[in-house]
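Milestone 3.1: sequence recovery, worked example.
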């Protein structure tokens, strides 16, 4: 058996199966979190702990897709360190895909490495895994008997 060796400089090939699995998992986790009905521009405040609070806002609703923004709310953190994730829900494909992270609205699935902005080779997979970790955190917090999803008017 001959081992395949990935040398330095070989092109990275995205693992689409892993990305699709993560996006499908995110869809299932998000459905466990959201109420059955909600409206455009509806916002929920999700409090995990005293110093870990997020706002989840519905930014777009169409027939088969919806868009959301997840924003960390913390007066102690500078703006550039607050988590800011935009994601789209595809109900027909039963997937959730991150479309923006930290105000970057175009996330490439394959980045040359090294690169001047220090993006990971698999940036798209990484940000979708981050959303999965966040959704797991909130769903597990909810399973512990605390409902972190509270609809509240947001005043910044």
């Amino acid at each position: 058996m001959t081992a395949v060796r990935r040398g330095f400089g070989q092109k990275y090939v995205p693992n689409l199966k892993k990305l699709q699995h993560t996006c499908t998992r995110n869809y299932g986790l998000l459905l466990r979190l959201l109420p059955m009905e909600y409206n455009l521009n509806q916002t929920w405040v999700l409090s995990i702990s005293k110093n870990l609070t997020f706002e989840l806002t519905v930014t777009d609703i169409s027939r088969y897709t919806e868009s959301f923004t997840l924003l960390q709310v913390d007066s102690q953190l500078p703006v550039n360190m607050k988590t800011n994730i935009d994601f789209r829900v595809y109900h027909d494909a039963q997937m959730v895909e991150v479309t923006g992270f930290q105000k970057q609205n175009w996330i490439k699935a394959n980045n040359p490495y090294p690169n001047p902005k220090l993006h990971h080779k698999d940036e798209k997979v990484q940000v979708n895994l981050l959303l999965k970790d966040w959704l797991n955190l909130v769903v597990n917090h909810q399973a512990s008997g605390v409902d972190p999803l509270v609809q509240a008017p947001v005043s910044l």
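The first strand starts at residue 43 and ends at 49. The radius of gyration is 17 Å.
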